[in-house]
Amino acid sequence: MPSFFRKKLRRITTMPLLTPSGKQFSLHKLVAMSTMVTPGHGVHLQPLNNTTAGDPPRQAYLSHEIQEYLRKLFDELSGSESCLGRERFEQWLADVQGHTVKLNKDKYKVEEFLESLFYSHSLEVLKRIPELDQSKPITNYYISSSHNTYLEGNQLLSRSSTEAYKTALTQNCRCIEIDVHNGELPDKDDKSIFSNKADHKRQPSGTGSTLSSRAAAAILTVEEKMESAKEKLESAKQKITKSSSGDKLKVLDEDENGGRPASIRSSMLGEPLVLHGWTLTAPVGFRAVCKTIREYAFTTSPLPIIVSLEVHADHEQQEVMVDIMKEEWEGLLLDSPFETCNPEERVPRLDELLNKILVKVKKAPELKEAPEASNETTNGPLTNGLSPASTDTLEKKASSNTLVPVISRKDADSGQSGSEDDRGSSKKKAKICDSLSKLGIYTHSEHFVSFDVRAATKPSHIFSVGEKVINELHEQKREQMFNHNRNFFMRAFPAGSRFDSSNLDPSVCWRKGIQMVALNWQTLDEGMMLNEGMFAGSQGWILKPPGYRSEDVKSDIWSNIPYKTLDLKISIFAGQQIPYPEGETEKGFHPYVKCELHVESQEELNGQPIGNDVKAKEGEHKLKTAYKSGSKPDFEGETLHFEGIRNVVEELSFVRFKIEDANYSKDELAAWACIRLDRLQQGYRLIPLKDIKGNSTPGLLLVKIEKVLS
């Protein structure tokens, strides 16, 4: 037997196995780079063309338990013969594995059988994603989205960081959020807040500081601010000089990192901050965030990014925001409509927006301004029977209305703007200035009141709604919501009561056609696992299934949705290198496999309540194995059978594998995988496992999948 089946893997830097990279899977790369086996004489396998040059060779390892099951499989196929014939092998690959493979040898020994399985990728669990059709309007796609992207932890006490944007963007998140507040003139000796570093530390500046300024120590004393302002103004005057032509002004200073020069306005007025307002979260500079977005926006994908702005800043700081975005995103920012795409008539196709950053922001008020209550707040009942408490204005309201804005200016228009953070609902809301409003070209925010208002038919509008509103719309206006989302954007966000940064169930929202389900990426829970299952191997945009697109509008809106009935058998054979929960040992580790099927329940399909936290009640079907011992458990082929599951849309249904450690008190999660049902391949498969932080591990689970849809 080749040595790779006997030699234990040394600890190496891991790579994501579950997530494909480009058109090929990462497991393909692993195999191509490995020194697992040398093909035997006469075996002609198709070479892989995506091996990264310079990557070091890696050794693959299969545990004794997994090897034994694959050997038993070989014995069953070969019968009493010592070799497996080509015809029998090809027939098994087609019937059981679902692969059509032309083999080049007449007979295969057991080592060659295993070798061929690996080199033909016949054990990979994920079906390859077809090339994305980019010809549809952008509202026809699901978009991997982040909520309060800047936060590293919970919603009350954690730090704001540029690193959080890097993490999201490099994992193909394509809709990110920035909460922007008034900044102060930066201290000439302390620019840490406005740098890319998130670990700045400053002392509190006096007794009158607000909550966030106390947490971040980001505000200077009155005397310091006055002195700093004078120095900044004087410095700005000295740095403005006539250009060689004599008719233009030129700013001579560039930023300390060698980037684009700051605008005159931002030099004089200071720059906005990014933080979670009315909390103890620490800020980071808006420019630093924009720099990070530019650096990592298109490193893994050319597909567009939507930047959702929650604007809590006054008009002066909004103008600075515009300057910064145009400076830092030069060449990437979509700052004017395409000549052939009038936003009053249509939104662009996906392929028209490659390598572009779109801004989602509210529109500036019209000259003849409507009453405040009807445009920005909801003090009375919503139309169409929705209760006042269900509006997104109240969705994230905190327990206290006495907190003041984090950093205020005496000439501020008001305390805040935006539907997601309206804790101080009694305060007048900030209006959006004209220059910032003009950046919301094909993605402008509209406050949701009803599907019957004129704003609900504008091609470029986006309704952002919270969990409670989604639930009420599901119960009362289900068809209207679904039909709206075939043609126009909707974005869902977690309830404000989720101070721990937990997540809603995104699959419930996707089934309602909601394109953007904003999740707290810093928290690995069910919501983020489902998001991984949805977008694994994609570039952050997934075409909606038939029945959910703008082209599918019919009188009976449910008629062309491909509902099916599912019969799913999962036989669990063995695992290897399963990571322990923190503090656990090999001897004390007692893993079992829990399989959860996430599909639409009959109650949800009929418009019955789904719960205030958008958590499907009966949409989950759960089964689990008996527990075993150690990190190389033998589950003895135990079969978990999900039978006669109705209302299944493959592209919006998920199988979640969780390996948990059986304990006397509470079972702990050790490893997991989440796979979209349409990508779950039949036959004998190796499932790569992630740890409790979402990192790839060497862990594998050998299973057999039998999937029938009718």
From TrEMBL:
<keyword id="KW-0442">Lipid degradation</keyword>
<dbReference type="InterPro" id="IPR000909">
    <property type="entry name" value="PLipase_C_PInositol-sp_X_dom"/>
</dbReference>
<dbReference type="GO" id="GO:0048015">
    <property type="term" value="P:phosphatidylinositol-mediated signaling"/>
</dbReference>
<dbReference type="GO" id="GO:0004435">
    <property type="term" value="F:phosphatidylinositol-4,5-bisphosphate phospholipase C activity"/>
</dbReference>
<feature type="compositionally biased region" description="Polar residues">
    <location>
        <begin position="204"/>
        <end position="213"/>
    </location>
</feature>
<dbReference type="InterPro" id="IPR001711">
    <property type="entry name" value="PLipase_C_Pinositol-sp_Y"/>
</dbReference>
<keyword id="KW-0443">Lipid metabolism</keyword>
<feature type="region of interest" description="Disordered">
    <location>
        <begin position="187"/>
        <end position="213"/>
    </location>
</feature>
<dbReference type="InterPro" id="IPR001192">
    <property type="entry name" value="PI-PLC_fam"/>
</dbReference>
<dbReference type="InterPro" id="IPR035892">
    <property type="entry name" value="C2_domain_sf"/>
</dbReference>
<dbReference type="Pfam" id="PF00388">
    <property type="entry name" value="PI-PLC-X"/>
</dbReference>
<keyword id="KW-0378">Hydrolase</keyword>
<feature type="region of interest" description="Disordered">
    <location>
        <begin position="233"/>
        <end position="264"/>
    </location>
</feature>
<feature type="domain" description="C2">
    <location>
        <begin position="549"/>
        <end position="691"/>
    </location>
</feature>
<protein>
    <recommendedName>
        <fullName>Phosphoinositide phospholipase C</fullName>
        <ecNumber>3.1.4.11</ecNumber>
    </recommendedName>
</protein>
<feature type="domain" description="PI-PLC Y-box">
    <location>
        <begin position="436"/>
        <end position="549"/>
    </location>
</feature>
<keyword id="KW-0807">Transducer</keyword>
<feature type="compositionally biased region" description="Basic and acidic residues">
    <location>
        <begin position="187"/>
        <end position="202"/>
    </location>
</feature>
<dbReference type="GO" id="GO:0051209">
    <property type="term" value="P:release of sequestered calcium ion into cytosol"/>
</dbReference>
<dbReference type="InterPro" id="IPR017946">
    <property type="entry name" value="PLC-like_Pdiesterase_TIM-brl"/>
</dbReference>
<feature type="compositionally biased region" description="Polar residues">
    <location>
        <begin position="374"/>
        <end position="392"/>
    </location>
</feature>
<dbReference type="Pfam" id="PF00387">
    <property type="entry name" value="PI-PLC-Y"/>
</dbReference>
<dbReference type="InterPro" id="IPR000008">
    <property type="entry name" value="C2_dom"/>
</dbReference>
<dbReference type="GO" id="GO:0016042">
    <property type="term" value="P:lipid catabolic process"/>
</dbReference>
<feature type="region of interest" description="Disordered">
    <location>
        <begin position="368"/>
        <end position="427"/>
    </location>
</feature>
